[in-house]
Amino acid sequence: MAFGDWLVRLDRRWIFLTMGLLVLGPLIFPLSLPLHVTPPVQAFVDAVDKVPNGSTVLMSCDYDPASIPEMVPMTRTAFRHLLSKDCKVVVTVLWFGGPGLVDSVLTEVSREFPTKAYGRDWVNLGYKAGNEAVMVALGQGIVNVFPRDYRGNESNALPVMQHVRDYSSFPLLVNISAGYPGTKEWVQQVQGRFHLPMVAGVTAVSAPEYYPYLQSGQLRGLLGGMAGAAEYELSRHEKGSASRGMDAQSLGHVLVALCIVLGNVIAFGQRRRSR
Amino acid sequence: MKREVPLLLTAGIGLFMILSFFVPHHFISVPADFLQNCAIIVVACGYVLGGANVLRVNLDSISKREAGWGYKVVLVVSLVVTIAIGIIDGIHGHGSFPGEGTHSKWIYDNLYTSMSGTMFALLAFFIASAAFRAFRIRTVEAGMLAVAALIVMLGRVPVGDVMTGWLPEPLRLGTLQQWVMDNPQSSAKRAILIGAALGVMATGLRVILGIERSYLGGED
């Protein structure tokens, strides 16, 4: 068991170094591992496709910079998907650390559509404190809760807001969320109460929590983590940052799986020896 | 009276908000909207109170030279400087948001964003280390958990299908992980959600009926 003893005494910085190399390597030299679209992601794509062209969609981006690798690719692809359908997009943010990031991402994507203009085709209403209370209050009137957009314009004066009253103005809610307040609260406070159809993109670690909502039909589709974002990109024939990150994530997962197996083989050997 | 008035207010407003869920008449909905807006204002004021509390607690620790007081100096200076720059940006007519080109946006893009990302990225390293040293299978249940974890962890990423691509479709890791997510995982999660919802309802009723009083100051 000399090898086992060596592994037991292994400095954990070697594990850190291995993880670093396994993540960095595929980002520099992509492996192009094959991806396929899973049913929850396909359901998300189908739900957005079913939205009538030209309608106004509510998009809530509830995350902050800590979740950029998972949330931003979803936001980019969903926003691009909606703009390509000539939908108008009303964006809200319920995380105080998010508005600056979300505004940058949306502005960057909107530049790909020279005919789309801020205020006419999309608006970022920004952040409002209050979590679930904001969600319920939006049901009484969007402009009441967000009298000004993120850029300081009067919401009422923006062309995109002319036909927006409350949740009944939207055929779909697209929620990209990294935690609380997020998808769970939107389902409980808005989907359940106002019957607004919704789809969600969430972090990988929280995705299992939303499968019951997906199966009950309260969520029409679900993107789980970077894998979900990469599948969404694949279904839209895009090659974005999530697709590029999947090779790195794959090798990271393999290392963690190996660590679990190896750690337990060593522990099993030690237990046998101590008997 | 110090206890009865808050209890009566809680019971009255709690019952009223439940009523507003079922009765859309403006006689109910207008005051309910007002109360919702009050809640939003209270939460916003909470941030101000939270900021003031961070200052008070940390300034106190710094003045007493408690362990790690140097880090608290960094925290307080960062807090004050960020707020001050935000106010200056606002006064100079950059609007009510950290727009492009402002100092606030620079702080957000170059300090807040990168530091948040760094903190989250460190998780990958610690998870690998913890998986090696702490994830021990000592019981059958732990063994089942480990098997499910390995299936989902590898099946969620493309490498899972590469590793098992030679197997029939139903035995590939991608298919197995989808089955785990759709069936055992969802069933357990649904049970937890229903249990938690019943717990929330019971706690809500206890608060409205005045049985649960800890929110008044910790006394029963």
Question: In angstroms, what is the radius of gyration of chain B?
Answer: 26 Å
Overall average residue pLDDT of chain B:
90
Please state how the strands of the largest beta sheet of chain A are arranged side by side: 3-2-1-4-5-6
Percent of residues in helices of chain A comes to: 40-55%
Oligomeric state of the chains?
heterodimer
Sheet of most strands of chain B: none
> What's the SSE pattern of chain A?
HHHEHEHEHHEHEHEHH
Give a quick account of the main beta sheet of chain A: strands, pairing sense, barrel closure.
6 strands, parallel
Return the average pLDDT of chain A rounded to an integer: 93
Total helix count of chain A? 11
Strand content of chain A: 5-15%
The beta-strand count of chain A equals 6
CA distance, first residue to last residue of chain B: 16 Å
Overall geometry of chain B comes to: extended
Radius of gyration of chain A: 22 Å
Number of helices of chain B: 7
Strand percentage of chain B, roughly?
under 5%
Class from helix and strand fractions of chain A: alpha/beta
The CATH homologous superfamily of the largest domain in chain A corresponds to MTH777-like
CATH C-level of the largest domain in chain A: Alpha Beta
Explain the overall architecture.
The complex is a heterodimer of chains A (275) and B (220). Chain A has helices at 2-8, 12-28, 39-50, 68-84, 99-110, 132-138, 142-145, 183-194, 211-216, 225-235, 241-274, and strands spanning 56-62, 88-93, 122-127, 173-177, 198-202, 219-224. Chain A contains eleven helices and six strands. Chain A is 51% helix and 13% strand. The model of chain A has no long low-confidence stretch (mean pLDDT 93). With 275 residues, chain A is an alpha/beta fold. Chain A folds into two domains: 2-30 and 249-274, no CATH class; 39-239, MTH777-like (Rossmann fold, 3-Layer(aba) Sandwich), CATH 3.40.50.10160. Chain A starts with a helix and ends with a helix. In chain A, helix 2 (12-28) runs antiparallel to helix 11, helix 3 packs across helix 10 (225-235) and helix 4 (68-84) crosses helix 5 (99-110). In chain A, helix 4 links the parallel strand 1 (56-62) and strand 2. A six-stranded parallel sheet of chain A has the order 3-2-1-4-5-6, sandwiched between helices. Chain B is mainly α. Helix content of chain B is 77%, strand content 0%. Chain B has seven helices and no strands. Chain B has helices at 4-22, 26-63, 69-91, 103-133, 140-155, 158-163, 173-208. The radius of gyration of chain B is 26 Å and the shape is extended. The model of chain B has no long low-confidence stretch (mean pLDDT 90). At the A-B interface, helix 2, helix 5, helix 6, helix 9 and helix 11 of A face helix 2, helix 4, helix 5, helix 6 and helix 7 of B.
